[in-house]
């Protein structure tokens, strides 16, 4: 039943060879990776006015231009900086890899944690804001706001689980529709003004206070949400068709130009039409003022709603790629590096959806409450990424390195100042949560890494370990298969036990790529073991099916009446939270194999020591252990 529902929602699985066809070029990469940044046009200007209007009243419509200009300047600094990141780190990972390689492990972990938080908040903020737009236009939907938010998170999750190519088609077209509708809004708005239209004076009852630097900085901090999503292109370079770096840099440039036109155009338009966002979503109110309740009003409202919802798709593209890179580096559970049926990082997609949904419920879909948490994480990652690139140029130099170092250094300094501004001005509004959450995530990631180091130390096989297989045994009338994922002490122990119960033993491995198979063969030869190793390639990343096919094959020569014992190697860890960090594929294999009456399943456990015991034996500071691994 579950498998049928899965096929209906996600579709047929794709083989590994289809990965090349799952990449996108500029046409579809632009809307997929730019939706977050482009969608901020819908709320960044609005958030600036939320800060300025209560403090300085009507003067807010003048000062919004100054704040917008500062944000656009920062946008182009970041664009130039990230173009260099794309060129030098084409394998993705963005700020995490750049910071880790150039500033050290701790800086990399901080960048990864900060960016992970930002991606989660991107989904929560974008969807909540999108639903705000539609309930402003269709007030009868207000009681169902949270339910709509959760439905849309589920929709995005399923869309992304269907694979990169399909999701780019689903979420790409609405992004272009939004760009054209807002461009039409800006053009129509200025034409209407040129034709002599005088907007009505807004009813502003706020007391007017002097314009202060602190006030402008607070408004700037709110408007900086327009820059979230810029880093997504550098994180997802591997998802582009070749030449990947060229396509990624083109998308980043186009993204910056689009934000310049749309964000700059709408905020300037707001100064003429004097839109007060406390009465509803700014873009929808502006569209009503310019178009009335005509067809174009509903087009702007609908496309704004859709782009804000689909803006979360940038996070669904960036977050799984980021955590997959971190999982390969063993700072988060390894399961996050595994690809699903449609060659997407499905575990990362599901986790992002679940955590975002919990945030929406916890904050009741309140955009202003959520946005206080929003920009801190991404600007920390901006700062660490640009600092890392600056250090890289100082170390490696190369052609025109002075100019490149200046761009990244200035970018790092600028974004660091912005982090301080946001952290101070937004601290009471929720930024304190992120300020404390990021260190907790960093601590958790370090614990995960140290656990994997301790496990690897205990499972590592050396040439001396080949004697573990040299044991006398009796002959049994059963045949034994030992499935091994890799060669380690747990699998050696299972093979050793197998030799005690039968002289017909086979080590069996399912590989998802040729490189993995080759490495295993080379390591297995090191043991000079009499047990043959059989490797099967699985293009659909299935484990159980290749094993059952091998048992039925002529090569295995199974005879009626034979009993087959499948010995599954397994290691056990000491603490409950460590169990989450490891695959439990053996449970599924055991359950399915026990359905066959001629197959006996045996689990051979290897009890590992506590991490602290193993790490203490190294007699090194923990930071040294992290650096050397």
TrEMBL record:
Keywords: Membrane, Transmembrane, Transmembrane helix. The keyword Membrane applies. It is found in: Membrane. GO terms for cellular component: membrane. GO terms for molecular function: transmembrane transporter activity. It is a multi-pass membrane protein. This is Amino acid transporter-like protein. The lineage of its organism: Bacteria, Bacillati, Bacillota, Bacillota incertae sedis, Caldicellulosiruptorales.
């Amino acid at each position: 039943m579950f498998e049928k529902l899965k096929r209906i929602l996600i579709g047929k699985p794709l083989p590994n060879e289809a990965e090349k066809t799952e990449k996108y070029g500029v046409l579809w990469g632009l809307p997929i990776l730019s939706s977050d940044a482009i969608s901020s046009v819908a709320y960044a200007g609005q958030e600036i006015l939320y800060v300025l209007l209560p403090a300085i009243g009507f003067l807010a419509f003048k000062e919004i231009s100054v704040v917008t200009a500062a944000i656009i300047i920062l946008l182009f600094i970041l664009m130039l900086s990230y173009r260099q990141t794309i060129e030098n780190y084409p394998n993705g990972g963005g700020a995490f890899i750049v910071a880790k390689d150039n500033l050290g492990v701790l800086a990399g972990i901080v960048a990864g944690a900060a960016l992970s938080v930002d991606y989660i908040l991107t989904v929560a903020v974008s969807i909540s804001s999108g639903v705000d737009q539609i309930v402003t236009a269709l007030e009868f939907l207000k009681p169902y706001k949270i339910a709509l938010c959760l439905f849309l998170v589920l929709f995005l999750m399923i869309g992304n689980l269907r694979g990169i190519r399909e999701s780019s088609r689903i979420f790409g077209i609405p992004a272009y529709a939004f760009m054209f509708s807002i461009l039409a809004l800006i053009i129509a708005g200025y034409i209407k003004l040129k034709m002599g239209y005088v907007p009505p004076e807004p009813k502003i009852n706020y007391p007017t206070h002097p314009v202060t630097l602190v006030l402008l900085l607070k408004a700037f901090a709110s408007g900086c949400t327009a820059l979230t999503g810029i880093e997504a292109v550098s994180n997802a370079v591997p998802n582009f068709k070749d030449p990947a770096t060229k396509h990624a840099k083109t998308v980043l440039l186009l993204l910056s130009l689009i934000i310049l036109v749309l964000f700059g155009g709408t905020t300037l338009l707001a100064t003429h039409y004097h839109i007060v966002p406390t009465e509803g979503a700014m873009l929808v109110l502006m569209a009503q003022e310019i178009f009335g309740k005509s067809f174009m009003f509903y087009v702007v409202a609908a496309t704004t709603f859709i782009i804000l919802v689909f803006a979360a798709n940038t996070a669904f593209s960036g977050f799984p790629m980021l955590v997959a890179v971190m999982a390969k580096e063993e700072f988060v559970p390894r399961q996050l590096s595994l690809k699903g049926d449609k060659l997407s990082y499905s575990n990362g997609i599901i986790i992002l959806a679940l955590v975002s949904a919990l945030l929406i419920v916890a904050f009741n879909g309140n955009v202003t409450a959520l946005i206080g948490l929003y920009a801190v994480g991404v600007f920390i990652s901006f700062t660490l990424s640009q600092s890392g690139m600056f250090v890289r140029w100082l170390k490696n130099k190369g052609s025109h390195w002075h100019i490149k170092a200046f761009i990244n250094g200035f970018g790092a300094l600028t974004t660091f100042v912005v982090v301080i501004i946001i952290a101070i001005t937004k601290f009471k509004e929720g930024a304190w949560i992120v300020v404390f959450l990021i260190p907790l995530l960093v601590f958790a990631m370090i614990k995960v890494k140290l656990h994997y180091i301790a496990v690897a130390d205990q499972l590592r096989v050396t040439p001396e370990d080949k004697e573990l297989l040299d044991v006398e045994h009796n002959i049994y009338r059963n045949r034994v298969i030992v499935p091994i994922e890799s060669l380690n002490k747990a699998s050696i122990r299972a093979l050793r036990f197998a030799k005690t119960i039968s002289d017909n033993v086979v080590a069996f491995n399912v590989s998802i790529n040729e490189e993995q198979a080759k490495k295993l063969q080379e390591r297995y030869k090191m043991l000079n073991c009499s047990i043959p190793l059989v490797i099967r390639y699985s293009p659909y990343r299935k484990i159980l099916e290749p094993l059952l096919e091998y048992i039925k094959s002529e090569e295995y020569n199974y005879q009626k009446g034979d009993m087959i014992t499948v010995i599954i190697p397994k290691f056990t860890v000491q603490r409950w939270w460590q169990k989450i960090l490891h695959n439990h594929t053996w449970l599924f294999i055991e359950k399915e194999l026990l359905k066959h009456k001629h197959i006996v399943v045996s689990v051979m456990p290897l009890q590992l020591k506590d991490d602290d015991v193993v790490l203490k034996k190294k007699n090194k500071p923990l930071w040294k252990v992290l650096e050397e691994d």
